Amino acid sequence: MSHIVGVDVGSTYTKAVVISEEGALVGRSLRRTGFKLAEAAQEALDGALEAAKLERSDVAYISTTGYGRFQLGSRQLNVTDLTASAWGARFLYPGTRTVLDVGGQTMKASRIDENGRVQSFRLNDKCAAGTGAFLEKTARYMGYSTDQVGPLAATSRENVPISGVCAVFAEAEVINHLSQGVAPADIMQGAISSLVTRSVQLMKRVKMEPEFTLVGGILRFETMAELLRGRLGADVHVPEGDMVQYVLALGAALLGRRRLQKLALEGAAA
After folding, report:
1. For residues 213 and 215, what is the distance between their CA atoms, to the nearest angstrom?
2. In sequence order, what are the residues at sequence separation of 6 or more whose Cβ sits closer than 8 angstroms to the Cβ of residue 74?
3. Where are the chain's structural domains?
């Protein structure tokens, strides 16, 4: 049986998924990207195959996405982040019309049609205050790890406003709050709320329509998803568990599967 691999080489993490010809997810793997993008991509691919109990010879097609999508030499197809997120989100939630992808270094909002085509999109990649990196940096400054962001915010009793539109100014606000004895949990909640505000602004710029699907590693923090539900006044889809981090890799694999099927049909016709 032939399988298809999708690899998302992101700025912070690289993810890979393996799907069958029928579109079933059979394996996945995640690695920190670091500065050796090609190595991270290959390690993620190998890890996904190991999880699926497959060999490289079982793979018929490899598709990549993410900012480092050109780094995997064995790829046969590369697709943009926006296209991959649209396909991955629509596969999981067919009614999706607006996708928000919050990653480590970028935030993207897109509005898609019923066929998964991107109709409008906006990116916020000018400043870290609009990305997941700001949350991670805030946590580290206060002595917490990234894994502690969610649990820390969950204990917050008050939402402390952080209004800086630039990471430098926002960080200054965090320092000021700490000097005044504000609880770290409340500061973290404020940082997440600030990120949510920027997310909604970006979604408004693409003329968002329900249904909403949220993807990206930062959405594994339940507090952010809950705040977005409140701001949007509607329910939103968030893939369960760590699957929220694999949506783009899944979308890349699905696009690879479509290309493989098209090539098969062309070969049969010839």
Report:
1. 7
2. 45, 62
3. 1-78+240-270, 96-238
Q: For residue 110, give the nearest of 194, 240, 214 by alpha carbon.
A: 214
> Nearest-5° angle of CA 72, CA 74, CA 76?
100
CATH architecture classification, 96-238: 2-Layer Sandwich (3.30)
Non-local CB neighbours of 175 within 8 Å, separated by 6+ positions? 141
Q: Give burial (CB, 10 Å; 0-12/13-18/19+) of 76.
A: middle
Question: pLDDT by residue (tens digit) across 19-67?
Answer: 999 999 999 999 999 999 999 999 999 999 999 999 999 999 999 999 9
- Distance, CA of 100 to CA of 212 (rounded, Å): 8
The beta strands (E) that lie in 70-194 are given as 77-78, 98-102, 107-112, 118-124
pLDDT tens digits, residue range 118-172? 999 998 855 655 577 778 888 888 888 888 888 888 888 887 877 655 666 667 8
How far is it, in rounded angstroms, from Cα 176 to Cα 158?
16
Instruction: Report d(CA 183, CA 69) in Å as an integer.
Output: 41
Class of domain 1-78+240-270: alpha beta
For residue 51, give the H/E element and its range. Answer: helix 37-52
Count of beta carbons in the 10 Å neighbourhood of residue 130: 26
User: What is the spatial distance between Cα 174 and Cα 127, in angstroms, rounded to a whole number?
Assistant: 16
**What residues contact residue 125 under an 8 Å CB cut-off, 6+ apart?**
105, 106, 107, 131
Q: 26: Cβ–Cβ under 8 A, 6 or more apart, which residues?
A: 3, 18, 19, 20, 52, 54
